[in-house]
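writing this on my phone so excuse typos. first protein, seq and then structure
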Amino acid sequence: MSNQSVTPTNNLYEQDYHLWLEHTVYLLKNEKFLELDLKNLIEEIESMGKSDKNALRSNLRMLLMHILKYKFQPQNRSNSWLYTIYEHRQRLQEAFLDSPSLKCYYTEVFDNCYQHARKEASIETGLPLSIFPKDYPFSAEETLDFDFFPN
């Protein structure tokens, strides 16, 4: 903790976010729970969970879109597409290692993410939306499999 004078923690949050974090950690480590800025601490923790879920959905949409492009534009397959598929599978797998409960969320949002990825693939490729099946042609497990590439 720095030697700067500390204003009441609820004001500190708005004045100097990083210092607020340091002070909050200090209070937690020293079990000074009554001095915690609970309102902002709760807000930050909730925000962290939302960020993880947003990142999962974003990575899943990108992965699904590239798998669709790979499947429906075989003439345009590139190392860049392979890398993007690998990268987003890796990001999702790492998220599941850090937070195994996100695997349930992955299953929960899979269909919705596929519908967005389908539209994104249509826009990016210029192919009609009808080219991409309404129901995802592969399993959620195949999508995460580093060795799976559709023909």
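second protein below, same order as before
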Amino acid sequence: MTYVITSPCIDTMDQSCVDVCPVDCIHFEEGADKILYIDPDECIDCGACEPACPVTAIFEEDDVPDEEKVYTEINALWFTDKDAARAKIPS
């Protein structure tokens, strides 16, 4: 299991989660991304990021709200095809 960043992060991109992540698994490219991404292969499921998020955008994979489940795929996709993941983020 991993954690997933969802739509409240779009255009907010507060990096409090990055600061508390012990394995540096939260990534983005400045100037190119509108949301942060958690690498599902690097995430150790510690949960430190979830309470650090000021907009409640981070959920444990099994707890992602139904209307946000698409972000589970988008988060994973970013690590194999950044452009495809970015195309799925609403403008």
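Strands lie at 3-5, 26-27, 37-38, 58-60. thats all i got for now
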